[in-house]
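Archive entry. Fields below.
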Amino acid sequence: VNHVVHNGGLYKRPFNEAFEETPMLVAVLTYVGYGVLTLFGYLRDFLRQWKIEKCQNATEREEQKDFVPLYQDFENFYNRNLYMRIRDSWNRPICSVPGAKVDMMERVSHDYNWTFTYTGRVIKDVINMGSYNYLGFAQNAGACQEAAAKVLSQYGAGVCSTRQEMGNLDKHEELEKLVARFLGVESAMVYGMGFATNSMNIPALVGKGCLILSDELNHASLVLGARLSGATIRIFKHNNMQSLEKLLKDAIVHGQPRTRRPWKKILILVEGIYSMEGSIVRLPEVIALKKKYKTYLYLDEAHSIGALGPSGRGVVEYFGLNPEDVDVMMGTFTKSFGAAGGYIGGKKELIDYLRTYSHSAVYATSMSPPVVEQIITSMKCIIGEDGTTVGKARVQQLAENTRYFRRRLKEMGFIIYGNEDSPVVPLMLYMPAKIGAFGREMLKRNIGVVVVGFPATPIIESRARFCLSAAHTKEMLDTALKEVNEVGDLLQVKYSRHRLVPLLDRPFDETTYEETED
Amino acid sequence: QEKEELIEEWQPEPLVPPVPKDHPALNYNIVSGPPTHIITVNGKECINFASFNFLGLLDNEKVKSAAQASLKKYGVGTCGPRGFYGTFDVHLELEERLAKFMRTEEAIIYSYGFATIASAIPAYSKRGDIVFVDEAACFAIQKGLQASRSNIKLFKHNDMADLERLLREQEIEDQKNPRKARVTRRFIVVEGLYMNTGDICPLPELIKLKYKYKVRIFLEESLSFGVLGEHGRGITEHFGINIDDIDLISANMENSLASIGGFCCGRSFIIDHQRLSGQGYCFSASLPPLLAAAAIEALNIMEDNPDIFQTLRAKCEHIHKALQGISGLKVVGESFSPALHLQLEESCGSRENDVKLLKRVVDYCMNSGIALTQARYLEKEEKCLPPPSIRVVITVEQTEQELDKAASLLKEAAQSVLS
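PREDICTED_STRUCTURE:
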């Protein structure tokens, strides 16, 4: 039962996105589970305070014991009592290229995860469903690696200067022209870190007296950039166009909160694919709203560039829209290009302005040359300029893998969030104990998955997240599916009752959330 | 109906104001080839006095081959943040080596130098806490402070009396409200060698103030790591201070270590907290392994050749002396600081004209084979904007003749442009 939307002709393709509602019993049990853990947490803290139980936390220096405590006891309550129990599911060290199969260093804990020791053994060929390797460019051999090696021996690893001073290499200029061509925009600018791209450029674009409308589930970098800019921030419900339209109407009609003056600019911040939900932004509707209300659109394509669209050019191509409609197209090179860094693309005036006033161009080191070369080679491969059809094949393979994997998981009876075409597949677990258990059981069966809980997700909606890659072959996917099936039966996480609530029909309440800088 | 009219009428400002074509910051210098000792800028070959390559490790063959080996093993990117299969054994090794080198318990690496201190400060200092920061603090520190939403108290650059006055005022405030004072954290944020002025911070007095007023110290050592101290351990070694007295040392690996990224080191009690609450650590992809391997090799070289630090400092003294007495330009910075500023002795009235004048000096030097740059700032965003200046960077690879050539060329340029 999939809800298909062709909203007033705005969509040229079916938009299948659904979020099944949490079963009531599961929600209750999850709350009970957290309640029990909290009680135990209080008990253990009590025992530790009265020295009945040994405290294994690092402690303050003797000489500084009378300083104001650095951490509030409550801040770390969650960390000490809940996170510490299942800490081994995260920060797993690997020692090979993060491709479709990866080698992990084995680590054990003899004191319930307070400290880890490495046994020295290596778990080989773990199927990697956790790395953001959408097009499989995380390779240590092949055209990309050879080109990067040549550039490394010629240019060295670092740059030691900022873009505006002496750090602007000819390689950077070449990359920027290529990125602009790839996206179909007038010009582009690249930065050394994806997170910093957001947090350093949003403040350059908007300031006091402007309004930012940000999606509920935006990434921390967008939230930080919005806060640092000093503009007023209002949050609309995730991917909910009625909520966004209401906020837009209110903003233009009522103006700034106290003075009633009109807003200088309004900027809408959305992401292409939301990495925790697996949902794709309703871009045709957002662009229609943007044009009607004369606002500006900032699209963060961290996960969707390279992963969506018939030739990998991102969510704009996926919907068949014009890249010039999006005012600021931002993205990162970490996920689909197997490198690091971020970019912003748009009109020439925008990029010229950013070249002059972006915090990163003035104060932060530019990108390292071998990384730049990796992006140039992989981007040329995706476009097809290297003379092969490898890029196109990978994009198609990813789309096939996505559809196949999601279909099989849904058939097995798991609750899977998100859009049918998104390569990020969240599988709902809900209960805190199952988070740890799922991660460990899958590792025992040689499959590496990512599990996420609070605070990255709402407290009862913890999940396991699979990131598909073009490098995954059908055999690997089948093996993974078989194991997921087994573990799912073992842990009883097959909650789906096939009652899907289409996102459009979800009611939204009238409250709006506003954050202002005081 | 009225609403529809209002919506029709509202006109936003353009997304970005147009930038004039001759804006000084718009036209970048294009460097073809590696930015090493001999650099090709805009087609001309020059001696590099502008890249922060203090120990000359950008071009080092051993560093490059270590990075090549890592590239062959791991590829380029890590495809994930540290929490989700982005932790490589190279990262763990680099953290251990840095902690051992700095003689602290633990170290944590970030993938971007700017993000290091800008994520470290908000992890500890929240709304309601008090931070005393030097006026000449660099932009990354300012952004970290802004993100933390704490109360910022600026004290005059390197003026311990001013800082003590602020601390005493705060103490009086505390006595009025002891309950609040018991939960308000206090920090002092200083740099070892200031990027904006080239001065050194008086750390021994700061330590005394720390214990007297119970404030924690965060030290930013981007310029002094790998420069000061007998073994390059930074300002704590330079002054002979016990490193545990400093709560957090943060530095970036983009200057002396000629790699990319940054690190924080200190006691586990402090550093471990950043693994869950450092925004630039948790929500961002980890450092590419080849850069981590390059940093490890650079550390090896630093440990094996402790005499390069003395050599570097001697060169700094040499050029500091040689640049004295240029008519129209004054040298700003300590004699052993490898990054100093040349400011105009007399401003010609407006910042724009000063910048234009300095540009002519820089162009004169570039045309004659010395690559220099002006220090760049965001004029509207800085809290205390430093005056326009030319940045002169000394590296260990520059020979005495080249230093003398640079000094004499600057004298010539100043004479021809400024008189």
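CURATOR_NOTE: Residues 400-418 of chain B form the longest helix (19 residues).
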